[in-house]
Specification:
4 helices, about 140 residues, mainly alpha
């Protein structure tokens, strides 16, 4: 009988936590949008209309490292949109929404760091261009 490697078990557990966190975030964001007198997407079609991260069916056949790398990139892309939403919430004087989105960004940063650690990388390595010009 073949037993999964400990690293594989850790990756599986991490994804279970990431999925649970993401579901909680979506539910909480939906409730907050209702509190802010906004209507969150309610159907799969509406979610797909707003989706900015494309599904990649080839990942089904990829090794764990490729899946982890793609996940870190997806979270980094999500952060770009969260950053824009934080700015917009500030301009619209919606401090509760801005605060929630800021916390969401922090949670995503933690997930990115943890995923990157499975690849032997620092949090933003190969994800974010760092400015070499430190004047």
């Amino acid at each position: 009988m073949v037993h999964p490697r400990p690293a594989g078990i850790r990756v599986t557990r991490r994804y279970q936590e990431l999925i649970a966190d993401t579901r909680q975030q979506y539910d909480a964001l939906g409730a907050l949008l209702l509190d802010e007198n906004e209507l969150p997407p309610a159907t799969t079609a509406e979610y797909q209309a707003y989706a900015k991260i494309a599904e990649e069916p080839r990942l089904k056949y990829a090794d764990a490292s490729a899946v982890v790398d793609a996940s870190a990139h997806d979270l980094t892309m999500a952060n770009l949109f969260i950053d824009r939403a934080i700015i917009l919430a500030g301009k619209e004087n919606r401090p509760a929404l801005a605060s929630f989105l800021t916390a969401m960004r922090g949670t995503n940063n933690r997930h990115i760091r943890e995923l990157q650690s499975f690849l032997g990388k620092t949090a933003w390595e190969d994800l974010v261009e760092e400015d070499d010009d430190e004047d």
